[in-house]
Amino acid sequence: MPSKRRVPSCSSFRPVNLRNLGYLLSIEQASSVADAELAKIAARKANARYNPVFSPTWYATWVGVDPVAAIPALAARLAALDKPAKQTNLALRFVAAVSRRVGLGSPIAPSST
Fold first, then answer.
1. pLDDT for 59-113, tens place per residue?
2. Closest CA relative to residue 54, chosen from 89, 99, 103
3. Where do runs of H (alpha helix) occur along the chain?
4. Is the separation of the CB atoms in 9 and 40 below 8 Å?
């Protein structure tokens, strides 16, 4: 009897590259996963040890599903970074990640009404 393979969720996923993370998040966003659950995962990942490649995408995802909590956390992370170059890198990568999320039809996309 073939064994069932368990597909990892975002909560246990360790992305190999930014493209993989983007694919996974777009699948999760389009699924029946509640925004609150996605916000919880994104908050945990965003607030983990700072990673200049992946953290901006986690913040963008978090802002997309829970901006009230995520925006102050992003501001605090920016303020905590010790070098202006690191702050600029996070800010620019965050804006790029938000732009990608909007293109995928995330909740932060402007409404058409």
1. 998 998 899 999 999 999 999 999 999 999 999 999 998 887 655 554 444 444 4
2. 89
3. 18-30, 35-47, 55-65, 67-80, 84-103
4. no
